[in-house]
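Repro:
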Amino acid sequence: MKKIISVFLLVVFVNLGVNSQNQRKKVSLKQQVERTLKRMTTQLELSKDQQEKIKPLLLTQLKDRRKMMQKRKQMQTSGVKLSKQERKLLRENRLEKEQDMQKSMQSILTEEQYAQFLKMKEKQKQKRQ
């Protein structure tokens, strides 16, 4: 009886994990931007004007990120591998976009907000590692 219950619970938890992953994938770009903007508004105490300026930046950033993820998936399925030079160019492009985003954020945010924004970015990097 205990084995049956254990197997049942295992199946339930696996299904919950798969369903939550599928739900995460179904989040629209607009919903993701709104969620990120809401979190930033709470943590950085953004004004309405700042929110309106940041929203298009987030939208552009997330579109680019999704496009890159799609390209990566296509390359993995097709078996195509990038050369060192191509990988270097992609990395430089990504870093350039990140720097542009930070410059834009610096022009929108106050000094205190920008310092907090950089701390938030650093915490996110640490979580990914």
